Description:
Helix content: over 70%
Number of helices: 10
Largest sheet: none
Order of helices and strands: HHHHHHHHHH
Distance between the termini: 15 Å
Oligomer: single chain
Strand content: under 5%
Number of strands: 0
Amino acid sequence: xxxxxxxxxxxxxxxxxxxxxxxxxxxxxxxxxxxxxxxxxxxxxxxxxxxxxxxxxxxxxxxxxxxxxxxxxxxxxxxxxxxxxxxxxxxxxxxxxxxxxxxxxxxxxxxxxxxxxxxxxxxxxxxxxxxxxxxxxxxxxxxxxxxxxxxxxxxxxxxxxxxxxxxxxxxxxxxxxxxxxxxxxxxxxxxxxxxxxxxxxxxxxxxxxxxxxxxxxxxxxxxxxxxxxxxxxxxxxxxxxxxxxxxxxxxxxxxxxxxxxxxxxxxxxxxxxxxxxxxxxxxxxxxxxxx
Length: 291
């Protein structure tokens, strides 16, 4: 049985950035165009009041409020989510193509076709799995803890229930981690075959995912730091040190926001490269001996 190297797989995204910096910049440009357009579409479609309702009720524990907002915005939210998933599938397919078929470099590995559609379906499978093993059980645990509130067993029920949900969701996430690259590589979606590929590799795949999460956190911190520094540097020469007051801070605020708007998609793309490349590299390792 081929043994997976978690570190080698997790670092595949960094190798892609080193080998193909121009390609990664093209992916960042794709995100730089599509993400603001998606955000603008959200503002146009939902409207100010709907966005305010979402902000107020997104953390609500009352199922009636959540059902109310979903019933009012359900169709619109589904459309926006599907559009986001399509854009994500296109970028994910390009990244997997760079890992599994590096010779197909034309158009920075970006295509629109059946591979993207398969990855879109895989995204929906992941969403369904998340709903079944995390969202619904988590809601049951939260409801049970609330009903048992004030009793001696409430705390234990919530603690053990949370551990169960975390353990179950982690196990399913690891066992399904190769589904997307497997569907990309073989040309059809086969959850059973992708699941069997993870047999005997659970802890190695889990270690890979932990390393990927750590790398993404580092990129997030780096992105926030760079955005702050760039915003401050760009605004430094425009601020009037004598005038002071609110008006003097406007150029700094505007340029800081612009820097964040331009840099955020870039660092999100770097995170996407890390997250998507790792399971693709893991699959490449596990199937290296196959004809």
